[in-house]
Structure formats: C-alpha cells, structure tokens
Amino acid sequence: MMRLVSTEPVKDPKTRLMMVFPQDETPPYAILSHRWSPKSVGEVTFQHLDPNSESPKGPVSYKKITEFCNKAFDAGFEWAWIDTCCINHEDSQEEGKSINSMYSWYRKAEVCYAYLADVTQVGDIGKSNWFKRGWTLQELLAPRNLIFFDRNWIDIGSRALRRDIIKETTKIPSEVLLINTNTDYSVAQIISWATGRETSRPEDRAYSLLGLLRITMALDYTEGGDKAFVRPQQGITKRSTDHSIFSWAAKLEEPGKLRDAFAKSPDEFASCADVEPNTTSREFALTNNGLRIQMRINDKDPNMIWGVLDCTRKGKHVAIPLEQIGDAAERRYGRVGRRGPDDGEVGATDVEAAIFDELEYREVYIAPTGPRNFNLTEWMDAGAQYTFFMEPPMTPGSPLVIDLKATGKGRWKFGPRAWELKLEETGHCGAMLLQHPLGEDQFVVMLGVHNNRVWTNIEPKNGSGESLKEISNNYLVTAKDFLTSERGKPVLNGLDERVQDLGGGKHGTNLVLGL
C-alpha cells in the first residue's frame, strides 16, 4: 500500500484529505525531498492529518506541506507524498516496510521537488545541508525528474541543469545525475557517495542505502550503526561477485586488532570513488568459517600479506592487507593495518599488472571477528585481546633469541623495530628463549595474562631437558598442578601485586627488553 495526500487547496490545512492506494493502483503523484524541521518548528505527521488519531501536542507548521501541495497542484498533480505524514512513524512495522519501499516510491514519482530551506540563490545550492543528509542520496538519484526549490519556494533549476554544482558537491558523476548512462558502477563507488552524510539515528546510515543497493531487510533500531551497516553488505554477497565491496579503508581502533571482511560505516568507502568492477570476478560466499573468497595472494613480503581483489583503480588491481590466523593449512586471514608510512590504517593498495599476473589464485577465508565457539572466557570477557609490544635490544652484547612459543591462539611477530606477542584470551602466555652472545647460558622470558592482568617471569634454562613448548604449557593457568607448582606461585601470589591492569585486554602494553 501507499498513502498519499490530496493536493487540492484547503482552507484548514488540518483537513487535508489522505488516502491509501494499493501498490499497483497508485495514481500519478509528486514527491517531496527535504530536511526535517527542528522540533521547535515541528513537522506535520500522520497523526495531525488522520481524523481517527489524537493530534500531537507541541509546535507544528503546515507551511511546508501547503507550499509543496500548491506547487504540485499547479503542475497538474492531484496527489502527493511526504515522508513526515504519509508514514505512520509510530507504527514500527509500517515504518520498516516504508523504508524498504522508499527508493521505489521516489523512482515511480512523476516528479520530485527538493526543498532547500537554507538556500536563497542558485550559487548556494552546493552549500545546502540537504546534501549532508543520509536519506537525500537516494532521493537525489532515484527520481526520474527532480526540481530544486529555494527557501521561498522559487524554482532554482532541475538536477540535470545543476549537475555541475551537484557533481562538485557530491563527487557523483554527471552521467549518473543525468540518468543517461549504461556504465556499470561498483558497489564501492555507490557507497562512497554516502561518505560524510548524517542521519538522526545511527542505523539509518545503513538503511538509507538499501534502495540504492537493491537490498530488502528487516530494520532494528537497537542494533547500532556498525551492525546495521554490515547486514546490507552481507546481503550483497548473496547476489553479487563484485569484489569492490571489500576495498574499503579505515583507521585501526586498537593496535594489533584484526578486522573482518566488512566495513563498519559508509565513511570507510571514502577512498573508493574510482574503484571499478571487473567484467568477471571470482565468486565468494559467507560461511560459518568466514568469507570464503578466491583471490590472488601476494605473500612475498614477510611483514605483510596482500589479498588482491578482482577490481581496479586507475588500471591497477586493488589489494587489501591481511594477516594469517592459525595454521597455514586453515587458510584463515584477518584484515590488519599495513606496515610503513600508513601504519595503523586498514587500507588498500594498488598492484601493478605485471605483479598481478605473477600471482596465483587461492581460496582463502577472511575470518569473522566474533567467537567461533562458546566458551567461558568469551562469555565472561568477550572480545578481549592482549598485545605485548617489545623494542628489540640493539646494543652490543645483547642476548640472542633462540626460540619462541605461545600457548592457545597466541602468536609472535618479528619486525626490524618491534616484536609483538598477541594473546587472544586471558590465562595464556608466550615464551622467549634467549642465550648470552658470549656463552651457552640460556634463560626463558615469560609474558602472560592472568585474570585480565599482565605478568612476566624469568627463569634459567636448566638441564632438565624440557622444551620451550613444555615450559610455556606449564605456565598455563589451566595446566595440571599449576596452582601448587613452583612456576604457578609467582604468577598467582607474588606477581599479582606488581602487575598493570589491562582494562579487559583492550590496550597494549609496552615492554622494553634490556636483558
């Protein structure tokens, strides 16, 4: 169904006729695009026009709806649609269905009038806050015909006539604004047009893109903006092989924290305006092991693995930074911050054609960031991750690193300027076997987390024949006899008094080795 209001002039705006039409019997209508007025002014709602509803208290202005209906009536349209009053926003089910139909309603309208309440002259069109609103992106692109009106309801030109101003403001190509192109635009390009736009509710950053992305889904205004934006991306993976959806870039929230395949916000596609889809792309699919995708892997640099996508930017293939998770046989990766000048950015880079042709396709998994199984640690402290950053000793006579081990899902990473130990849960540890450069004396440095608090211990490597793996496993809080062992006592009793609280594992700890 679609609810429309009559454009016929009325003496009392509160008596304007409102009717419901079946979707396939809708008469020709004009549609309004605008920014909602502040609460101090008030918008006309469904309850204001519905004779069976009690009129809401508070200020309300009928001027905008009256002027719009007058313009539509003068142009020969008997019916009009306005989002403030043609949807019962107090009915969440109706609101959800309407949002999923919104793009179609704007597309089927005979004309769209875009009211720019903050514009008084043509030269200021591009400065209007109308271009900053999330919902107005689809309201700009969906209608077949769109005419702009200034604050005084004076016609200031059509979308086609003002395309140069709009292009400069939105970075949307002129061909799209003219609706006169057969060019294929990538998913990343479309989402990039939503960069920097604002909505009253965080979830609407995602919901306002549903029509443009041809996605229909249930709305949930309790899920938050990040989760709301992931769902349409997941929906796209079910019907498209466009790799550009993974070409986003973002700043890392925490050192060492991995990201999964999907962006958290349209703003993370800000650099994707010129990412073009390939004519053919390898398939991908969501599984319970993560995103399964076929792409070329560039792992020639030991400090960074790049997954090359089937999409291009200015003739070069786009690649995303990855980090291996677990054993190589699992083929599981997470998105990670690149190393070098742009360290800290989960970004993409461009790969020359010559290098691209040398790489082979592999089927890999980009792992989800959530838990794979349900266990006590994740239930008590979901998402905890601990990263130790160490500056390697650079002075002459410094000890030599002989071996490294980590328990559980822990992993070491060596770089020329920093060493990292990542522990994905409390109760685990890492071990470093060091040897004096001028002798055979060896000792073990232990780094671990107990009850979300960091601890460290040093012990000589005696002649017991224990391997480094056996030593590190004996430091596990869950290891047999740990509570009463000589190794367990310092961790549980002595060191707890001298540890730094990590705040649930959400911060890194800097350690300088001067051994």
UniProtKB/TrEMBL annotation:
It comes from the Eukaryota. InterPro entries: Cytolysin/lectin, Fruit_body_lectin_fun, HET. Pfam families: FB_lectin, HET. Residues 29-119 form the Heterokaryon incompatibility domain. This is Het domain-containing protein. It comes from Colletotrichum chrysophilum.
